[in-house]
Amino acid sequence: MASFYVATDALIERNGKYLMIKEGKERCRGKWNIPGGGVEHGEKAPEAVKREVWEETGLKVEEVEGILGVVDGKSTKDGHPVIVFVFKCSVEKGDPDPEFDEEVIDAEFLSKEEIQEKELRTTVVEEAFKMEKKEKLETENFSDYTHPYLEEDI
Asked: How many separate domains does the chain show?
């Protein structure tokens, strides 16, 4: 069993505003975050970020533009360490239209000023904005990588 979780988050900017979700989970209800979540067993991180954006916002990722960086964090569920790959992505045109459920209660594009006024779930959002100013890393080699245990039958 892994001693940490792996997650992906997406920083998505359109016309000076950033795609944000309002959390619905009880432990972080009402707090804002960039779309993202856990990488599932056998899933590659670039595919996980596409899936998470779709599930949380109803918008399809058109391009995973690159990796902005990696953030160390802790799970708000159980305190376990979490390694978060933060990707720069672009999404299809249109407004967010998530299936509102226990995980997400709102999704919208917000300016940095509007985001600063919100209560954020973690520091990943601020870290992502800092990373955005730096050069992003390409994802070509990343998407070919599979963790060795995923190649075995478990």
From this structure: 1
